[in-house]
Design a protein that fits this description.
473 residues; alpha/beta; Rossmann fold; Nucleotidyltransferase, domain 5; 2 domains; 8-stranded mixed sheet; elongated
């Protein structure tokens, strides 16, 4: 690399070396020349951002973390005394990806600009008093806090818990008084679509501050490589999420992976509907939601039909309000039916109040292992034995987005659907439905009008005459 420079001492053209050009670019804080083609695509979108937030939803191995590290160095060099925070969801990412990326980038940094690395504080200190702090949020959840900040990176934002809280309550307040301060969120989609990262993607789209790139957008990815990556994925959901950046649930962690849209919509009521009792299933929330499902078991078709739901939480949940809504919906949905009610036993005092004060007795459900109860629902779902009305938005949302925690011993949590409490209510319904009892009476459609045979008049008179003769004898 050579360039022509005019000096003040003479007008002769001097050729400078590649090393000298790089040194000059370092001094100016212009490091975009270090980016590969895919990373330049992200950079192009970033240059148009006017607001405080930029979001990039990228395929694996697209180079998003390296690009973010370049932006950190540029701000640190251009803006003396700046504070930059690079926060990752995982400490392992910090040790294995982020710190090595900075070390690689700084290999050709001029000595007079080279920052000092403080291992104990996970921080780079520059000669112009700028700082870059690297944070693993899983081990250091309070690391993002500080007096002010000029650039904040959310790396693997789709896997950061309380992402919305961190952005709104921790990061944005640090931007006050800092000109051109920005937050950058980079990630592949999370294991469940119900995550604040998806909301931030929608927010960034509206503000023209969003970029999205699949593996097919990578200029350096060959068709052969793409095919290899696809074949190595253990499920289609992995391929869609990790490389096509679609917000799809991880099939390996999905609670009910058998659920499909075709199970929405209840069966038509047949001639036996009048005999089916209403069945309620309720999951009581202490710090989560309380959900009650209204259903009946179609014995003729061996199908559980869920018709409606009640969802309450927070200040809206009182025993009086819960009882009132249950009574109103029972009256509307099951006006002339016997109703059976089942609930978990986490709050026996509430169940006692509903029974004694509101005449709404709920039988506490028996429980086995969570895995066995979930598996029964999965079997019924696979066999098409569960149908759900579109009125049940909470239940449908839980079925579509419900995932296990990584230990698979309990349900994960979602800001939108809580502890997937509507799914727990469905589990109690399936567990308590009496499949063996046939509620359809044996004399169904048999009556005086349909089965009475008019007797023959002459035979009847003969019978009466003979009967009177025998009596005289």
């Amino acid at each position: 690399m050579r360039a022509n420079l005019n000096t003040e001492k003479n007008s002769k053209k001097l050729y400078v070396t590649s090393k000298e050009i790089k040194s000059e670019l370092w001094k100016r804080g212009e490091l975009s020349w270090k980016l590969k083609k895919s990373q330049r695509l992200i950079e192009k979108n970033y240059q148009n951002v006017q607001g405080k937030l930029f979001v990039s939803n990228c395929s694996r191995r697209f180079g998003k973390s390296f690009w973010a590290a370049v932006k950190c160095l540029e701000v640190a060099l251009r803006k003396p005394k700046s504070k930059i925070k690079f926060a990752s969801a995982f400490s392992t990412e910090v040790e294995e990806i982020i710190i090595p990326a900075f070390k690689f980038l700084l290999e050709d940094c001029p000595t007079e600009l080279e920052p000092q690395w403080l291992t104990s504080k996970k921080k780079y200190i520059f000669k112009n008093e700028s700082e870059i702090q690297v944070i693993g949020l899983d081990r250091n959840p309070n690391g993002p806090r500080g007096q002010f900040c000029d650039l904040f990176i959310f790396e693997e934002a789709g896997f950061i818990s309380r992402l919305d809280y961190l952005y709104s309550s921790v990061v944005v307040p640090m931007f006050k008084g800092r000109k051109d301060a920005k937050a950058i969120m980079i990630s592949t989609p999370p294991t469940s679509p119900v995550h604040p990262f998806r909301d931030f993607c929608e927010k960034a789209k509206k503000e023209n501050a969003f970029s999205q790139f699949t593996i097919f957008d990578d200029p350096e990815a060959t068709s052969e490589e793409i095919e290899i990556y696809k074949n190595e994925c253990l499920s289609i959901s992995d391929w869609k999420r990790e490389y096509l950046v679609e917000f799809t649930i991880d099939a390996n962690r999905a609670i009910i992976p058998e659920y499909e849209k075709c199970y929405e919509g209840v069966l038509d009521k047949d001639e036996f509907y009048e005999y089916y009792p209403g069945v309620l299933g309720m999951d009581l929330g202490v710090r989560d939601k309380t959900v009650c499902l209204y259903s009946y078991y179609d014995f003729n078709n061996a199908t559980l039909c869920v018709l409606d739901e009640t969802v309450m939480f927070g200040k809206d949940l009182t025993t009086d309000k819960l009882a009132q809504e249950i009574k109103e919906k029972e009256k509307r949905i099951f006006p002339d039916k016997k109703v059976l009610r089942y609930s978990d036993n986490n709050n026996p005092l509430l169940l006692q109040d509903l029974s004694s004060n509101y005449r709404l007795p709920f039988s506490p459900t028996t429980k086995s292992s969570i895995e066995s109860m979930v598996n029964k629902v999965r079997i019924w779902m696979k066999d098409g034995r569960i149908r759900i009305s579109k009125n049940c938005k909470e239940l449908i949302g839980c079925l579509e987005n419900g995932i296990w925690r990584e230990n698979r011993k309990e349900f994960d949590r979602s800001k939108v659907f809580g502890h997937f409490d509507a799914l727990a209510a469905l589990i109690y319904l399936v567990r308590n439905v009496n499949e063996s009892h046939n509620p359809i009476p044996k004399l169904h459609k048999i009556s005086h009008n349909t089965h009475w045979i008019e007797p023959d008049y002459e035979k009847t008179q003969t019978h009466k005459a003979l009967k009177s003769i025998f009596k005289r004898r």
